[in-house]
Amino acid sequence: MTILVTGATGNIGRKVVDELVARGVTDIRALTNDPVKAALPSGVEAFRGFIGKPETLDGAFEGVSAMYLAPYEPTAEEVLRRAKEAGVEYVVATSGSAHWQALTDTILASGLDVTVLGPGEFLENFAGWAGQVATGVVREPYPDAGSAPVGMQDIAAVAAALLTAADRGPHVGVVYELSGPEYLTRVEMAAQIGEGIGRPVRFEQISREAAEGVLQQQMGEMASWYLDLLESSVQWKQQPNDTVERLTGRPATSLRQWAAANKELFGA
Asked: Which pTM was predicted?
């Protein structure tokens, strides 16, 4: 039976396709608005469509036994209804808690067998530090803020492992919080990136006002929300877990490893 990957041109969905191929899955259907841009591996079926436009999904679920659902709250209920009516048996979805809770509630209430993946901060977010890393100094207001950042490739690997599991029973109805291998403060994050790219990077504390002024140029009104999240992480520290390794059989990627594999982002 076919495994459908939605958001197959997206950051995680495209990696789910690769992880399924690596696991030897030969019947994969990839949902994408642009099959050419998706650059799908040979043998993967491209289906033109978008979960944000359910009217484009006619035929997408035909013969599908399991599906990876990309996070898109506005149409999730309709997409899941269509999947259930078409006979899809199992869904792995990326969502989570906090501002993703409404989407998670919709997924869990779909009547399908589902597993929800709730990642925290992405390793890929640190590409936003590229300009600062190039100077050797990262400037932010909260040195003790932190997280246990997780890589998108690891999230995709978990999704593929669940979609191909011989026994999905223990995972049905579960929300897996996904993290990287360790909790790091912002100071430690800067240092690990430096270690990964082979060039020292230090952290320098600046005022919130100064940081917000810089971030507003990139994030607009979201800058204040982002800094609030950083500030709250000083008190509410994310606890790292071994879920990635437990479900995939390989350790989660560290920030140091990710930086080393993506040196070009930092001009190294």
From this structure: 0.95
